[in-house]
What we know:
Number of helices: 12
Largest sheet: 4 strands, mixed
Strand order of the largest sheet: 3-8-10-9
Mean pLDDT: 77
Distance between the termini: 54 Å
Radius of gyration: 24 Å
Low-confidence stretches: 1-17, 206-210, 229-241, 377-429
Amino acid sequence: MDASGVKVRSVSQSEMDKQWPFERIEKNIPLCKVPKQKEVLICNCSPEDDSPCGQNCINRATKIECTKRCKCGKLCQNNRLRLGLFSEVEVFQTEKKGRGLKAIQPIKAGDLVYEYCGEIVDLEEFDRRARQYEEEKRHHFYFMSLDGERVIDATLKGSISRFINHSCDPNCETQKWTVKGKTRIGFFAIKDIKADEEITFDYKYERYGDVAQPCFCKSSNCRGTLGGSREKEDPRRSTGSSMNSKLNRVTQKRIMKELRDSLAVICGKQKTRRLVDPSMVPSFVVLMKETSHPKQYYSALLDVLLNTTNTTCLAMVVGDRGVMYLSHLLQRFSTEDEDQAVVLKTLRVLKHLPMANSNALKNCTVTEQLYVLSGRDSENGKITANGTHLDEDNDEDDDEDEGNVRKRAKTKKVFEDDSNGADDEAEGTQDDVNSTNGIASTTEEKVEVKLKKEED
């Protein structure tokens, strides 16, 4: 046991160094359905900028990589994962941790180190594999959460980033980026890394049993064991509760803790969470991008927006495509009766945001979503249940490579920030805002009546 009384697993050096075969891959292999963002988001950067698609790029600020349609073309600097622009690293043998990854050349803070790739599986398959690996007595695990419903497993197939070890004082962190509509995970340096220095990050995972893995990071703030405290069983739960259900509980607990930590940084130490610092708005919008988190997650984000009175921050939420992500919420939760409270709160946020004379409505399907919710027909044509036009082709070639782009028969919807619209467009946009506010109010009343009947 360690000093805190936690039982620590004892693993011999020969077991730690055991070479389990794996297939090296440089692209995720989905073994389950993986959601994809259909909108093509184009930034407003120019090739004449001092740093095209640099730190001022709206896509980069919200962790979305630019596509081949970016106006900056080959000058675009926001395509590191898509082009595989990784740092020079290599696998090496550590003293006590098995194999690890180290830098060949110096890496600057903010640089992409490598992408975490593997097989994407759902929680049920994750449960099955975790049991299988335990029966095989494997001592190295290569699971990483992609979202609330999927996990990347790099055990059998993965990139060399699977060898990055834990440290309580890491030099890297994981970031989730949207690349061609799909979520991908990259390791990014959070401090300058010297040549021959080991690449590390904080695992931050929950323990499922009484036995913890020892930590060998040797940092001054070492916690002694990997991960956080053990997930405690609720005695009120049936002993026959499935592992999959337990994984869902642990996953949701982790997601909510990470959200609270993020909001503490974004909103500061206020008792009531609200946006007060415009520079933190892009980080908040990144939280809105998640598509598979529990409804409590989105409810907390919506509360922050409803509590915010800073008009600059609210306008930036609109400008940074926050309305588009609110549209995604309406689309996801409008079909579930038990989630109508999220829909109601989303409608209130839409009315709270300053959308006058902006392109926010033109650049997303929120108006169509409101028409669907209100039971009315859109003036723009017949709308399907998911808020997209029936004659629109939203498919995109997932295997699109540089220099080998397939021709598309139909024009796709492209979302572009354009602050130089004509006066008649501004007038039309204002009409759209007035119409949307009216529909939102009507729909809000209907949802409130429905919720009241359910309460009664």
